[in-house]
Structure formats: C-alpha cells, structure tokens
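Data availability (excerpt). The following record was deposited with the supplementary files.
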Amino acid sequence: MSRGAAPAPPPVPRGTRVVVDAERVAHGGHVVARHEGRVVFVRHALPGETVEVEITGEGKGGRFLRGDAVRAVTPSPDRVEAPCPHARPGGCGGCDWQHASPASQRRLKAEVLREQLSRLGGLDEIGGVPLDEAVDVVAVPGDRDGLAWRTRVRYAVDADGAAGFHRHRSGRVETVERCPLVTDELDGIGVTRQRWPGTDAVTTVASSGGDRSVVVEPASLGRSLPRDVNVPGLRGRGWVRELAGGREWRVSADGFWQVHPGAADTLVDAVRTALDPQPGEHLLDLYSGVGLFAGCLAPALGEDGQVDAVEASARACADARRNLHDLPGVRIHERGVASWLRWTELDSVDLVVLDPPRSGAGAEVLGRVLDLAPRAVAYVACDPAALGRDLGLVREAGWRVASVRGFDLFPMTHHLEAVALIVPPA
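Predicted structure:
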C-alpha cells in the first residue's frame, strides 16, 4: 500500500443482511444507499424507503456493495405488489421496477435522464428552462399499466430445456410459465410451455402486421407450435410484417424492430416534430436499420428531396431496399457509419437522424456530422449515459441542445428512449 493510501475496506460476506436508508435512484435500476461509509447499489428498493438489504456482491476493490432489498421496513407510498412472482430478489433479472407504480417508474426514469444530462453532458437547462421542467419521461399511447407490451422476446433455455430469463448478473435461467410483459399474441405461441432440449435460446415475434415467428438457436422445430407460426429456415418465411408511419415494413424475424407496439410511431412523430423536414431538403439517416426514419420522413422532402441512409447490417439493408423501393429519392449505403462519414464526398446536408446503438455515436461520428453543418440533428438514444456524454461533446463544439424528450418504451425495466434536438450555434 502506497504512503497515504486509505486501507481497503473490510469485505462484507455475501448473504449479510443490513438495514439502510434508500436515498436516490441510480442508472441501471438501482437505488443508492450507504452502509458504514460505502455506497450500496440496491435493487428492489425505492427512494425514501428504509429497507433490509441482503448483500449480493462487491465492486472492484470493495469500493461499493451490491444488494437486494428483501424487506421494506418503511415502504414508499409508490410501492406496489409486483404483478409477476418472478420479479423478486434472486429471481428474473428482466424487470427492475415492478415494485413501483407505473407513474413513479416514469418519475424515476426522468430523474435518471436528467442526472445523466447534467453530470455527463454539463446541461443545467434547455432553452432557458431548468432541467427539472424541461425534461420528462412519458408513457406511450396505448400503455396498459406497463403490461402486455413486448412483441419480441428472446428466451434463454436451461440445461433441462425449459425457457425463461437470466437472473440479475447471472448465467442461471429463471424459468417462467408466462411473462406478464408479453402480448397475448406472443404468449399464445407457447414457447414457455414446452421443452427445448439442445437449444441455447428461442426468439419469438408477434408482429403488428399479424405474423408470428420463432427463431431457435440452434435451429429445430418445436413439437407443439401453432400451425401459423413460422420457423425461419425450417417452416414458412424468415421475415415478418410491421406497421408504422402509415407504411408496411418487412423485418427479418430476428432483426431489429422496436418491441413496444407504440414505439415506432412514437419515435417517428418525435423525430418529425423535431426536424420539421421541408420540401427539397437533404436528410442523412445514420444507423438507419430497415429504413423506418428514412421512409417516414422522405415524403415530406418531396420530389426534389434526398435521403442517404447508412447502415452496417447487410440483412437490415436488404430489408430496407425492399421497404423503400417506392421512394426514388432514398439511397441506401451498406457500410459502417464512421467509415461512410470518413469517405463520403458530401460537404453539407440539411437534416440528420442519429439512431446509434446503446454505446452511442461517439466523438468521431458526431464531429463529422457537425462538420456537415445541418440545420437540425435528431438524436434517438436508448441509453441516457451515452446520450449525456454525446450531448456534452456537442456542447463543447458550440452547438445547442434545443430539446430532450423521454419516452417509457420499456415499462417495468430501467430502460427508456429519448429524442434530443441539436441545432447550430445561435
């Protein structure tokens, strides 16, 4: 130990139980508490509660502890009975907030989003309005108290062939008979009510276009799947139809599409409102997937408008070409976004949609986007920390964050989606 360094705190054995006061919400579905000077990240608690916590692990070097609230000594008024018996300490790791009312879940997510924008992005206001008033997280139209919204699920399979979900921070599978978050159409496939020997995972889809598919890894045919269910590579077609923005979309059965039935239209409306596309403008759609934003915004650009859609996935680009074949002003580029921006001959565009993966866009991509001098950038983010970091880079470059809107596309979990509008310096 170097001179002056603080001694390592004594280890706290797993299974130790302590009573702590839960303070504030933290990113990742935890609440921050303290025990003997150390931070404890607690699951299954709510801010303001006094809870009995079972220690489940330590951070590197014992700098912090992890734990599960096994009993609410002083429960929050926002605490409710979890609708799923598997949403408990040591149970399914898929849900973080089933013990909180739907309205309080959205408040917690808004607190997390604002904290990341402030701490990582350096934002304390947006357009002269304090963050507490400028940024919120709202429910998606058609929300059913946070239940029955998953149209796509990837089930893990245990050694006995039973399907379920991984436990929190564990490779062990919590087998389930029914998940209350899935739609009735998806549950009707019956994946969790049969065995899948020799299988690692089973992905199920019940699309808004009325199609149902099961993708089995490795490929096999379930013994009692309904006759209308496609099994790509073995039975039926390998894609499903989705409906959004007044259009029909073809999406590979195990490709990417938003899982909440109202998500695609919600995000399209938010991006369209932010950008306000005009006839004749040039739109750059980065991480374009199967073409959702390109296809929904292209009509507003008119016959003289142009869209360049950039996507690395060959399968997604193949779907996009099929989906957008009626839009001559759309060009699809099958290439990584950073690479394409590095080599493109474009020197300016009017509008940009950024919809990066969870890790965010990053400095290189953002720098090149700003070099193109668009009049507006719509940044679609599924991770508030990555969004906060990237908006910090935008601010350092002198650009302004005009708005940030949060959407609860993943009720009962800690995940959310946000759309930020970035505009040039005044």
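Summary of structural features: The chain has a mean pLDDT of 95.
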